[in-house]
Amino acid sequence: MPPRRSRVGAAPGASSVGHAWAPFPRPPERPALRGPPPPRPPPPDRPPSRAPPQLLDNPDVAKAFPSDVVERARLYLDGMGGTTGCYTHSQGALVLRKEIAKGIEARDGYPCDVNTLFMTDGATPCVHSALKLLIRTKYDAILTPIPQYPLYSACIELYGGTLTPYYLNEGSGWGLDCAHLKKQLQDARERGENVRALVVINPGNPTGQCLSYENQVEIVKFCREENLVLLADEVYQTNVYRSGCVFTSFKKVVRDLGDDYKTFTLFSMMSTSKGFYGECGRRGGYMEVIGTTKKLLAEIYKVLSIGLCSNTGGQINMALVMNPPREGEPSHPLYAQERDGLLGSLGRRAHKLAAALNEMDGVTCNDPEGAMYLFPRLEHPPAVWREAGKIDRSPEFLYCMELLEQEGIVCVPGKGFGQEPGTSHFRITFLPDEKDIDEVIMRLKRFNDSFRAKYAAMGDE
Q1: Which one of 44, 105, 117, 317 counts the least CB within 10 Å of its CB?
Q2: What number does CATH give the domain 94-322?
Q3: How far apart are CA 431 and CA 175, in angstroms?
């Protein structure tokens, strides 16, 4: 019988367990310390920042940036352990939630508890989180505005719920009619739906309306009477252009109504993607959840912890959006100049574009109040409806595709947002540079005239 082959590195005949490999050499013993350890230096007044010295400790920084900007950077870094590259608390870094809470308190005049704030990658995860909590079966329904931002219909479908529509009133500037809300709710309950929440987008997307304070009070009272959670999408809160329109948060409305509304459940959502900053790629956002139990807050925290934390750059941007430079601080004059300049320009573009649309044949558009869009209505020649039906499309789909092909202007067909049956709309933004708006208007008018002439020539049959 041939001898058994030895294992690599082992002597022939070595045991399979005992001394197949030589043990690692033991490290030499460290000499014992002699005498007492050296005294520790006294702790600094504040934790030292580990930021690269060229960013904060370089003397040229003070020449390049106002002193409050440098101090804000130090505050954030120190509160985040000296770096923006590590995970934060799953609700967001405490130092940044405190900044957001200050901004909410300044906006509303009421306290904000940092434990009710959840920082997210934009406002989209806020919608996901809220609807995930609310929808249990296909019978759970969410009252959703039509037209609406399609995120809501997509999430309701994703989580297996039911969308119960309510139609914004185009004739009253896309207002929200509470009598209509009650009818939609009653009809839904008669169909066996368990309506659990109401979605309100204010200022509106795609419609651009800004709700009045009185209308908001009606909405809150309606939700309390019907035991509905209110989901307030307020990401366009700084985008208000119409004279006399003022944004009021739903949190302020709830608090104004007094102690009877202490347990009123409200999810408020905000983002860095809109406003005059428009940092959509930074993915910063938060939701504030009030009027609920500590147990529910713990459940939200648990779910968000699955993703560890939102990105730190977005968290920092969200803190800056909600707590910008204040009057008296060195950087405030430049901040105010840029803010007012951008918002003023957006307002001029919105009003100019709306006025031009209302001068076009077959087009009507409500006055712009807020957000970044207009949602004009189209009256088509009969041939447009006929041709669109042949390809199973809405008539505004033909309008938008031909507009893109002929003039290079991108618009979104109204069907993507929902609209009352028998109507046709499209969403257009007024974000092109102010110097380009006249060119956009000229191209729109040229296309609208040619489109209507083309289909009018096809006749009614």
Answers
A1: 44
A2: 3.40.640.10
A3: 24
Tell me how far apart the alpha carbons of residues 264 and 285 are, in angstroms, rounded to a whole number: 23
SS3 201: strand
For 419, residues 6+ apart whose C-beta sits below 8 A from its C-beta are 146, 147, 425
- Rounded alpha-carbon distances, angstroms, from residue 349 to 241, 247, 336, 342, 363: 10, 20, 20, 11, 18
Tokens of 289: 């959840």
Between CA 128 and CA 155 the distance in angstroms is 6
Taking a C-beta distance cutoff of 8 angstroms, is the pair 278, 102 a contact? Answer: no
Give the per-residue pLDDT at 398.
93
Q: Are 112 and 255 in contact (CB under 8 A)?
A: no
* Mean pLDDT score, 195-218: 92
With beta carbons less than 8 A apart as the criterion, state whether 414 and 148 touch: no
> Would you say residue 7 has pLDDT above 60?
no
Count CB neighbours of 8 within 10 A: 7
Local structure of 270: helix, strand or coil: strand
Return all residues near 146 (Cβ < 8 A) that are at least 6 apart.
165, 166, 167, 168, 417, 418, 419, 420
In which residue are the tokens 């490290």 written?
27
User: Cα-flanking dihedrals φ and ψ of residue 150, to 5°?
Assistant: -60, -10
What is the average pLDDT score of the chain? 86
Q: What pairs with residue 165 in β-bridges?
A: 144
Q: Name the residue ranges covered by the structural domains of the chain.
A: 52-86, 94-322, 333-456
Q: What is the spatial distance between Cα 401 and Cα 390, in angstroms, rounded to a whole number?
A: 16
In angstroms, the CA 347 to CA 374 distance is 12
Residue 11 has pLDDT above 80, yes or no: no
Which residues lie closer than 8 Å to 171 by C-beta, 6 or more apart? none
Give yes or no for a contact between 399 and 393, defined as CB atoms under 8 angstroms apart.
no
The CB-based long-range contact list for 352-357 (8 Å cut-off, 24+ gap) reads 352/437, 352/441, 353/428, 353/430, 353/437, 353/440, 353/441, 356/441, 356/444, 356/445, 357/428, 357/444
Backbone angles phi, psi at 198, to 5 degrees: -120, 130
Which residue carries 């709306």 as its tokens?
354
Query: Residue 233 above 60 pLDDT?
Result: yes
**What pLDDT was estimated at residue 136?**
92
36 — pLDDT class (breaks 50, 70, 90): low
- As a CATH number, domain 333-456 is 3.90.1150.10
Q: Whole-model pTM?
A: 0.82
Q: What are the angstrom distances between the C-alpha of 447 and each of 144, 352, 353, 410? A: 34, 18, 15, 13
Token pair 């309306």 is found at 209
